[in-house]
Amino acid sequence: METGSQNTTKSFYSPQEASVDSLTNICSQSTSLKHYPLASDVMNNVLVYDGDSLRQSDDITPFLNEIAFAFRQGPGVIAIKRFYDDLSVIDEMSEVFEQILAAESGYGAGDHFGKQGPQANGRIWNVFQKSADIAPGVFVNYYKNPLLAAVATAWLGPHYQITAQVNIVRPGGAAQVCHRDYHLGFQQPEETARYPLYAQLMSAMLTLQGAIAHTDMPMESGPTKLLPFSQQMPLGYMAITNVNVRLTLNNTVYKCRWKKAMRCFSVRHSSTLPVKTAPRISTAAPI
What we know:
Blueprint: H1 20-26, E1 41-43, E2 46-50, H2 51-55, H3 61-72, E3 77-81, H4 88-103, E4 122-124, H5 127-134, H6 136-143, H7 146-156, E5 165-169, H8 189-192, H9 197-205, E6 209-213, E7 224-226, H10 236-239, H11 243-252, E8 254-255, E9 263-266, E10 271-272, E11 280-286
Parallel strand pairs: 2-3
Antiparallel strand pairs: 1-2, 3-9, 4-5, 5-11, 6-9, 6-11, 7-8, 7-10
């Protein structure tokens, strides 16, 4: 079933109806800069914007319109380089993360989409509140970024709420499995099938995933993998658990090489790559 082709009289679908062919067809689209005049570049179908240029704009509304279209009808993912104009803001928050990790013995409960054990991905759950308690000044400087508010408002409107977790991928760590996040992304496909299609579609409208790189992330560091346009698949929550779909994802995803202070926003995201060298740190902020 592809975007716009679903039976309007049908609301409940089985996991078997989420096909690899449908996903492949949807993700065969390409992103053209001519439809996104404010973007500075397109990398593997991911729109790239320049934070310095956006900060100089007197009217942010055209940007909001453009990325709202990109999230819904375009690739579903954008990246903003130079998201912060002052890198010390990131460095100060990284120090707060280290304090929290030390207090929590350096290892959290692990990653629900990855392996457990000594080389498991490190997590700081609810770092939004924890960082505010430990260093309120750093917290304010980190989250008051007007670009964060602009992107969140473009997809969710005003009065959104933020949660944040830290993801530390360690050398030797295995890749996450490909997945979709909130809200139905944690359900088994048989459970997801109990939700009518409109509820599955609505879930995508209620959350925006954002992540910012606290360090440079070459391919060896295990950066995030993304599949542009996959958010357009109505049965995506059930498709993602299909073994053949995951194989397709692994062969077709865009592997992000992130620079420090680069932020990526997506309606859906995929997984991390296996890590070969130094750990990398990023903050994931479902909004």
